[in-house]
Amino acid sequence: MKKTDIDLIVGASILAAILILISGVLWLKEVSISRKMVNYAVLFPNVGTLQVGDPVMVNGVSKGMVKQIFLRGKDVAVVLELEKSIHLTDSCRIMIQNIGLMGERGVGLQYSERGTAVKPVKNRDTTFLRGSFDTGIAEAMGMLGTVLGEVQTLAGNLAAIVEQTVGDSSFISSFKAIVERLDTISLAVQDLLGDNRSAIDRSIGNLQTLSEEVKQLLQRNSPGIDSMVADGEALTSRAVIIAGTVDTLTRSVQTILDQLQDRESSIGKILHDKELYSDLRTTVADLDTLVRSVQEDALKLRIKFGFGKKRN
């Protein structure tokens, strides 16, 4: 065989192997050259271990893959490459999910035709959908270290508490003393109840009897009690009337006092007139003199009548 033929066979074999390798990769990735793809951009608060090329599942069916991941502010933007036949709306739920026991990630999309249709994106400056992040095995394993540290701290605190209580001889002796005192108190209470059980029973019986007698008394005197309540209501109404009358009288007395204090009123002028006060004192003094004169003359009075004439 010529050397040229050998080179052709080797080259054809290598080319066939490359084609088989590419076909196998495409088959494993479930990539179809004939299907048309479009892109949608989604913002997530976190993506965990999500990588470019991870699958995108629409209602559990693989319909695309993750094409690009980049930061956008405090969120993470993920560009999803989906089949053109999938038309997303703003009511679709998009979530990063755990799809394997080793922490593999994928994007799960709950498809819904309701809501407003979202157009595919062509660049980074576009409208983003909102997605959520589902904590998986990788995040749980990451949190396990923190949990174990907290458990270790809790165990240390518990050991310290046990050492300060059960492990301390003084605590044990104090605890025993408290238990003995409680036992003594329990026995004393038991003896007290045993010695006075009959008296306690009689007291309880007397209370029951008293309760029955009070009940019967109330039943027998129910009409009288109702009458007393009615009389109390009538008395209350009368008290209200009396209070109104007293209030009116108080206002009248206050009016009189105001008039007495007012110097311009008639009564005020009489009370505050000093000349009238002086005349009244003079009159009283004259009257007193007259009374004394009558007493001294033994009721002999001289009365003068007429115009300039004197009569005895």
The description of the largest β-sheet is: 8 strands, mixed
Provide the low-confidence segments as ranges.
301-312
Alpha carbon gyration radius: 58 Å
The strands making up the biggest β-sheet line up spatially as 7-1-4-3-2-6-5-8
CATH fold annotation of one domain: Elongation Factor Tu (Ef-tu), domain 3
Mean pLDDT: 79
Strand coverage percent: 15-25%
Q: Can you write the helix and strand succession as a string?
A: HEEEEEEEEHHHHHH
The level of helicity is 55-70%
The tally of beta strands, per DSSP, is 8
Query: Which CATH class of one domain?
Result: Mainly Beta
Distance from first to last alpha carbon: 204 Å
Coarse structural class: alpha/beta
Describe this structure in words.
The chain has an eight-stranded mixed sheet with strand order 7-1-4-3-2-6-5-8, with no helix packed on it. Helices cover 56% and strands 16% of the residues. The C terminus is likely disordered. The longest helix is centred in the C-terminal third of the chain and has 40 residues. The radius of gyration is 58 Å and the shape is elongated. Among the domains are: 34 residues; 99 residues, Elongation Factor Tu (Ef-tu), domain 3 (Beta Barrel), CATH 2.40.30; 26 residues. It has 312 residues and is an alpha/beta fold.
